[in-house]
């Protein structure tokens, strides 16, 4: 009898935890699969604006991709190349100009609140701590160089970043996903060129 | 209590389950299991959460040329000893992670030694001082400067004696700064001494050449080498340079002939063509007899004299005794043979040792008499290195530049910590005219200050080390070019001092009784790195002990005393030192050899090293330290530090210490009943004489193949050639591998349990009778077999073969069955019994980010530095050029001073490795097993009757 009560109590417990988890059910992944991860960043940087609308090349900011294992997060100085001049969206500046003209005064400088965080970081010598999205386990060694120089486009792994307001992990970055692509590439080539995408364990694990 | 920690709501809501664990009426085991099952299910469901949030923090303003994830190499100079080897420091994302020899610098020529490699770890030493200390308390630099300036002003006014005590300083800028600093005082002197002194060589040259110089020895030019107790391949003066020179002449047809007279067994002795056991007190007599024969130009049946006489101007006699008479005789012999100017360069002498023991003795006497007002101590630890601690308390002001609190600096009034050499600008002149530069590879981790900057402040003209060094060399060198190369040559108007004649003294005949010989161990040298765990865990190349120094006894002596390995013996000669004994074959019967540099305060930190579990035992001894300091047995007599003490007594104490020795670990020997079908156990070490080299090589007989030949290597096929004849056993490769591949330190107790983690080991084999042994060193690592026995037994396919011939170990697949290690005939696999990586965040900065840090329960082994292979392959692809032979230099190969290890593509018939694999000396270890190892060994050449000094007229 008691055993049955226990079963019911415990069953309710598990059901409850399932209900609690249900809200996250759409995001359910096996451990270490972070597909769909879309954290809020310290500065609401828009890839849609920069890479999509303005068509800035990915490798302008992520300049390590061709030369290093890491594509790299751009240093603030790269942002400042443009943003020492561009401090707010055009619309906001125009609005201020119009307002100033109405009020018959000189327009004030407009600084976007997001960009002011960048300026604060530079002023205070405190680098921006971005939240890392694409992160592989410590026993996996991925090298951007090998892929970028073989002609793999960024979007193949990172998805349509140029359409994303906030970056999201599109691929699951699992080993099967990597190996499938390597096998395909060996069969079909990349951009019409034959490639040798190794599927040795020690290509990534050492 | 049960609610203190929970990971999920489900877990939190199971208090019933908690209660059920305890017995009560109606609670069955079944209920418990059921509850446990539900809790597990709930936990697992809610446990599928994300890994912790990781931050990616870029630079604010990235320095030019720096790209995250790309290594940069800075040319620098090793500061681990005064030899001044050129280094390339590999820097990843702002931190140095590996040191390699600089091929452009004449001392190292691309190689390095074990100590140099390990000095990297010293940078990340959490016990280094964080700021200056004033009277033992942390202080600010301004305060220390102010107080020292005030004390110095007083001393200047009173005309007090100021003494600057240092080790050998090869830096011209530093010497200039010390000169400027001392010029402020009326009675000031700079005293240099070396804990491993060769003062007698300099004194002897003062007598015979009128100049206190140390010749620059050129072993590459010598056909006949006679070494009297000089361990020039292991620890003497500049071992990397000497080993490279020596190895370059150890192949027929131009093979040199080397005779070694020594009391203990050194690595140099282990490589000699003829090794003669001679106690230190017998060496003088031998030198005298040799001198007489050379003088008479009549060998009188003496083989060495005959060879030397035939190789006039192409021979070299060196003596490692710090004894004036012996060194004068050595000079005399070299002079008679016309070696000065040929194999001994005195026009551009070595500056690697400049210590003056007589000046040291004078200073100690002054200190004792209380005549020293201010003493500055730089880079030495006299309280631990000298026979007796100096009377520091009698000096009014003692300032130490030590980086940490040691035996000496703890008595200093002020400690003004110097940078680690990897943090500082510096210059060095190891050989007259060769300037080698040190540039910082990391911003100083602590608030330390370079000594020359401190001196500049105290002179009243503060300047940065960079400014001081640039100022010193302005107009003389092309600075940018010199920094890029790491070194520069400057013209020195030099004229070799001329021979002035030798006053030969007769000395007392050989002493009776035991002689204690105090020697520097290959890993520990003078003990300045006694806080370095890598070096303590490095098996001594000869004794193979780790984490201890021992009293080495010859087999006969040990038998006479009834002593076995590990029995503590008491060595008495004025002072008494108690040490565990180790029986050392090949040692002179009257010699008791003890390594210096142990028993240091710095080793107290190892009390807690290694995994802690119920059966673990401490790494440190009863004295709380690693080993015993043998310095009290030294003597400072007649103005020379004596490293041998005659007439000592030895007695057993009845105590035992469980030593950790890797001697019998990982043995490859096959018992006869397990021998292959033909019943022949083949030797693991093979030897050959120069005469046999022309004969066709003997190959193992063809075996029937069990494996189908369906795995062709179409691209690369990585392999290695290891020249056993070149290998000196110096163990630079072991530490290089440890630094490169993040292999952990396990501590003495785990080492004792054969759980050492080194991926490459050097097996030392003896042959011949125990009192007259021959030695062979064999580097042994994973052989990357084609038919790898480990691969076939792995149930999880964690070890598999690559199409480039690598035997891959996949850590994330390994479940730790250890079947592979059991099946490995070479015993090259290592198992992580514990989670070894430490929580010392600073020390962890040394880890190579390109190699996984393995966790508990995982097998690991040599990977042929696959991270370097990958890097080189990807880089070649990026640049669109084919991979060339030599583009990939694996860590052990890179560091090897003797160039004994060659890695390469065996599919490329022109690669060096491939050509060596076809050499007449080639053989493979355990070839009869037909596992087809990719590592080819080259046989040891036994040149006992070789022609060095015989073929020329």
Write a concise synopsis of the structure shown:
The complex is a heterodimer of chains A (206) and B (953). Chain A has 206 residues and is mainly α.
Description:
The complex is a heterodimer of chains A (206) and B (953). Chain A is mainly α and 206 residues long. Chain A has a domain of 41 residues. Helix content of chain A is 44%, strand content 1%. Chain A is built from 9 helices and 1 strand; from the N terminus they run H-H-H-H-H-H-E-H-H-H. The longest helix of chain A has 21 residues. With 953 residues, chain B is an alpha/beta fold. Helix content of chain B is 24%, strand content 21%. Chain B has 6 domains: 38 residues, no CATH class; 43 residues, no CATH class; 194 residues, Rossmann fold, CATH 3.40.50; 152 residues, Dimethylsulfoxide Reductase, domain 2 (3-Layer(aba) Sandwich); 148 residues, Barwin-like endoglucanases (Beta Barrel); 224 residues, Alpha-Beta Plaits (2-Layer Sandwich). In chain B, helix 10 runs parallel beside helix 12. The interface between A and B is large, with 64 and 59 residues.
Determine the structural class of chain B based on helices, strands and strand pairing: alpha/beta
Shape of chain A: flat
Q: How helical, in percent, are the residues of chain A?
A: 40-55%
Strand fraction band of chain B? 15-25%
**Secondary-structure element series of chain A:** HHHHHHEHHH
Helix content of chain B: 10-25%
Give the name of the CATH architecture of the largest domain in chain B.
Answer: 2-Layer Sandwich
Q: Could you please say which CATH topology of the largest domain in chain B applies here? A: Alpha-Beta Plaits
Largest sheet of chain A: none
Question: Could you tell me how far the N terminus lies from the C terminus of chain A, measured between alpha carbons in angstroms?
Answer: 56 Å
Low-confidence stretches of chain B: 1-13, 15-25
Q: Approximately how much beta-strand content do the residues of chain A carry?
A: under 5%
Overall 3D shape of chain B: globular
